């Protein structure tokens, strides 16, 4: 498993803790105090958590706009946090390829959520990707969200 995958999973666990406890100050340091965490995964996980906190309102709106007929509050906690991580990466980390972001989100959903989560997450993220990264891959001229 790649370090980035471990980072995304650590960020997911932290976001889950925040959602469940209501403690918006929960962070990676608290997670590492109680769980065995790969130290190399911490910097990217922290970058994700910080970015999601900074852009939380915009990310939540973006997800709801693209999740036709779904409110964020009706989504499973795991699913909405996987969506937040991937939406943040799509919108604010152009150096990470869209295909990697979508694939990682789907694989994490398969590991941590229900059987129905992966297609649900894929559909929403594909829509977000087409909006956020509409220019496509300038090097090849292809739509990198396809």
How do the strands and helices of this protein lay out in sequence?
Layout (H helix, E strand, L loop, with lengths): L2 H19 L6 H7 L7 H13 L1 H11 L10 H16 L5 H15 L4 H16 L14
Helix pairs in contact: 1-3, 1-5, 3-5, 4-5, 5-6, 5-7, 6-7
State mean pLDDT (0 to 100 scale).
88
How many distinct folded domains?
1
Q: Level of helix content?
A: 55-70%
The helix/strand order is HHHHHHH
Low-confidence regions:
none
CATH homologous superfamily annotation: NusB-like
Number of strands: 0
- The CATH topology, please? N-utilizing Substance Protein B Homolog, Chain A
Shape: globular
CATH architecture classification name: Orthogonal Bundle
Key phrases:
single chain; 146 residues; mainly alpha; N-utilizing Substance Protein B Homolog, Chain A; 7 helices; 66% helix
Descriptive overview:
- The protein has 146 residues and is mostly helical.
- It has a single domain, classed as N-utilizing Substance Protein B Homolog, Chain A.
- It is built from seven helices and no strands.
- The model has no long low-confidence stretch (mean pLDDT 88).
